[in-house]
């Protein structure tokens, strides 16, 4: 999955450039940028990449993942039942939950949409974490630059910050990055 149209617009606005400026920088018309942002067309992958590369180059991203990650990470144990998992997700307002083994090492992640699919097919009293686990999203170091985090989050809904033993240190979602960019955008004096 690549940029959500709303994300492109929000990031562009957080950086403080107009549609015309972005269009000029990537060699397209302003009307094309407007149509992409308004969801009127489904752009080519090459255009999305150009937009992403330009926005990344324009943002000040000297910060690292540890600056925006949420910690501690709410996790599920591999044999935890679905009721406990759903209770955690509701309590913390999260749509995904990393899964750890008995050594507290990451082994996968549970997304709400997978949970929904399983519940439609199976008795909830029979489901445990290992039945609904998905492969891990990208794993990064706490010192990973935000430009790299941004690249990952154009393809994945979440990334996990881990130590060398695959123990979760933090979690970063697209919303976290967007919020950070908007909050930390500094306009140049006019």
From TrEMBL:
Residues 69-127 form the CBS domain. The keyword Ribonucleoprotein does not apply. Keywords: CBS domain. SUPFAM superfamilies: CBS-domain pair (SSF54631), lambda repressor-like DNA-binding domains (SSF47413). CDD domains: HTH_XRE (cd00093). GO terms for molecular function: DNA binding. SMART domains: CBS, HTH_XRE. Residues 8-62 form the HTH cro/C1-type domain. Coiled coil: none annotated. The keyword Nucleotidyltransferase does not apply. InterPro entries: CBS_dom, CBS_dom_sf, Cro/C1-type_HTH, Diverse_CBS-Domain, Lambda_DNA-bd_dom_sf, Tscrpt-reg_CBS-contain_prd. It comes from the Archaea. This is XRE family transcriptional regulator. It comes from Acidianus brierleyi.
